[in-house]
Design a protein that fits this description.
With 138 residues, this protein is of the alpha+beta class. Helices cover 33% and strands 31% of the residues. It has helices at 42-64, 104-118, 120-126; strands at residues 7-11, 14-18, 24-27, 71-80, 88-98, 130-137. The strands form two sheets. A three-stranded antiparallel beta sheet has the order 1-2-3, with no helix packed on it. The chain has a three-stranded mixed beta sheet with strand order 4-5-6, with helices on one face. Helix 1 (42-64) crosses helix 2 (104-118) and helix 1 (42-64) crosses helix 3 (120-126). It is globular and about 50 Å long. It starts with 6 loop residues before the first strand and ends with a strand. Pfam families: OsmC (PF02566). It comes from Microcosmobacter mediterraneus. This is OsmC family protein.
């Protein structure tokens, strides 16, 4: 059965969207003259989806390798095209690993498996963006 979501208008430019897991997310955008934001912008959510997809892969793979980290984060930035419809033409994905005596080879292997084999969101981004990745060990 295909994934299905429903997005409901909540007034103004705010929307609430469900998820096949049952969880909800609020989306909106910047409005000139309005400082209050209620949710995430749809394009920024795409970057979060990319980070989340790859992060799930990396942590799952490292767990199977019995690798312990003190912390881990992914920073994603994207540059939009100038003309409409605006989309991310370039995306940088930076993986940050924290810990004592990190096994950098296994961390690199986990990232490469995510990038090349498992992360479907990464593959979707490759259809319209130049995706660059970099690893940092702290």
């Amino acid at each position: 059965m295909p994934d299905k979501i429903t997005t409901q208008w909540k007034g103004g430019l705010t929307f609430e969207s469900d998820n096949p897991s049952g969880e909800m997310v609020t989306m909106d955008t910047s409005i000139e003259g309005q400082d209050k934001r209620y949710g995430l912008s749809p394009k920024a959510m795409m970057l979060s989806s990319l980070a989340g997809c790859s992060a799930l892969d990396v942590i799952s793979i490292l767990d199977k390798m019995n690798i312990t980290l003190d912390d881990f984060k992914i920073e994603v930035s994207g540059e939009l095209t100038d003309e409409h419809p605006r989309y991310y033409k370039t995306v940088a994905v930076n993986y940050h690993f924290y810990g004592e005596n990190l096994n950098t080879k296994k961390c690199e292997r986990a990232v490469n498996l995510s990038i090349d084999k498992y992360c479907g969101v990464m593959e979707m981004f490759r259809q319209f963006s130049e995706v660059k990745t970099e690893l940092f060990f702290h």
